[in-house]
Every structure is written in C-alpha cells, then in structure tokens.
Design brief:
Blueprint: H1 2-36, E1 41-43, E2 50-52, E3 57-59, E4 62-64, H2 67-76
Antiparallel strand pairs: 1-2, 3-4
Bound molecules: zinc ion.
Amino acid sequence: MFKYIVIAVLGYLLFKIIKNGAYLAIENLFKNKQLDEPTDLVQCTQCQNFTSRELIKKYRKMDFCSEECIEKYQNSI
Ligand SMILES: [Zn+2]
C-alpha cells in the first residue's frame, strides 16, 4: 500500500514539475517574442528624433520626445 502512495506522490510532483516547466517555456517564448518585435518608434515634432512610443510625450495630439521639446515647440509658435 505504501508503495502506491510513494508512486502517487512522485507522480504528482513530476506532473507539477512538468507543468511548471511548460509554463516557464511558454513564458520565455512570449518574452522572446516581445524582444523580437521591432520597437515602435515615433518621430518627435520638434527635434525630428525617433523615440520609443512608451517614452513619447503628447502635446496637442502631437508627439514629442521630451518636455524640453514641448517647451521649444511652444516658444517657436
Ligand atoms: Zn524632441
């Protein structure tokens, strides 16, 4: 009887390890996919430099790379 319990526990642990391993493999796949994707670049209205979309600052529906460029733009109009 004891033998079966040990086998059941080992089986359960093995199942958990495989499940976690599969989960980690899938997670890594998604991470790699994100890294492989080209960065979404947006051109700054003021200095014409390309900046990653996450860092872009919006001003009057226009894209700027920094607060400095927004100020320069405000001064130029
Ligand atoms: Zn700029």
